[in-house]
Structures are given as structure tokens and as C-alpha cells.
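Quick illustration, no need to memorize.
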Amino acid sequence: MNLVGSLFRSSIGRKILMALSGLILIGFVTGHLIGNLQVFQHPDYLNGYAQFLHQLGPILWLARIIIIVAVVVHIWAATVLSLENRRARGTAAYGVKTWIRASLASRWVRWTGYLVLAFILYHLAHFTFGVAQKEHFKDNLPLYTMNEDYRVAGFLVVKEGASVQDVHSMVILGFQNPVVAVFYIVAVGLLSFHLLHGVDSLFQSLGLRSTRWAGGLKKVALVFCLLYFIGNLLIPGAVLAGKLAPRTLQVAVSGR
């Protein structure tokens, strides 16, 4: 208990908490992107994937709780550390020196974090709870009939012929609004920029970065964030370009 308490009371402990919570969130956004990229395949894939997640029930809610806790801890630790740093800087001269030496991503990491939080709340309102753009929410779409079995790691999770929510069409219809699509592109760009500093700094907070491979780590972080941004850009970009169209079906589709 003393160890857990020290994580919250000390600056080093808060840095570790921010790094660990950030690691959880990086894993989540990466997995989320990989799942969403199935929109470029036959609707069976994304619809089967969404149904599989829905069938997890309590496990899915446990994962959501872990993610929510990670978000809260990450924001709390970042805010407290930011206030501590501001008090520690003291003089304006030291503050200017720190600003010059800091990377662009680290300078704006706190503000991009708050903007990303606003984006996450809208994303939940849009695709999870259906508060935004209710006409495109999954409960307003016809059910989709699976054409083939959907498997995860070789295990059958959704059977052929099952009626599932047409999440594939929901995602595409949601991005057909140019304002929404551009908003997502900008927001994901800010998230990628936030990750650029976070991926690099979490290794330092956990004591896993050395001067010998610090430069290589920065390059890996840059490539990861660039690929993450491009992956998220592809979905609304393809919809706006007319390369993705909804296929809302209630009967089996022949020929892939």
C-alpha cells in the first residue's frame, strides 16, 4: 500500500503512472485502428469484429473501465506534474531557456492532450452512444446478414447467417459529412503529435532509455506516429474521395 501511495505522492511516482497509463492508451489506440481498418474489407469483417466485441459482455466493460481509469490517471498525473514544473521554474529566464531546448511536441503536449480528450468524448458520442449524428447510429440501420463465419485467432465467434449491426455502413455514413471527416483528420493529427512526445518520454520515465539508443528511439516514435496518422487518415479520406461506400444489406451478398 505504501508503494502504491508513493506513486501518487512523489513526482517520480506520478511520472511512472503517466508512463504506464500512456502505455495502456497507446496499446488501445493501436488496436482500435487495426480493428477499424477492416472497413476496407468486405462488410463481414468489420461487422463480425464489432459483434465479437459486443459478445464479450463483462470482459468488454472491464476493458473499458481499465481504459477510463488510464485516461483519468494520465490526465491527473500530467496536470499535477505540469503545475509542479511551473512552480519549480520560478524565474522567467529559466522558463525561456527551457522553452528553447524543448521539442515542439513536448511544448504543446499538455494542450494537445486536452484537445484529444475533447475528441475522444465526441468520438464516443458519435459512434458508441449515438448522441451525435443519430441518423447514422447503428440502431437506426438495418441488420446485416453475415455471409461467412467470422473467426478470431482461428476460433469461430460469429456464425454465417447471423444478423448483426451494420457497423461498416455506420462508419462510412458518419464520415460522408465533410465537416465530421475533416474534424476527425485534424483531431487524429493532434493525437499523433501528442503520441510523438509520449512514446519517446515514457521510456525515459520507466528508465528504459539510454543515450546510446535515444536517437533511434526518437526515429521509431516518429515512424510509429506517422503510420498511425496515415492509417486513421485513410478511412475518412477514402470516404470523402468516394472510394468507400456503404453496403447496407439484409440478405447475403454473393461474390466478393
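The chain has one domain: 2-240.
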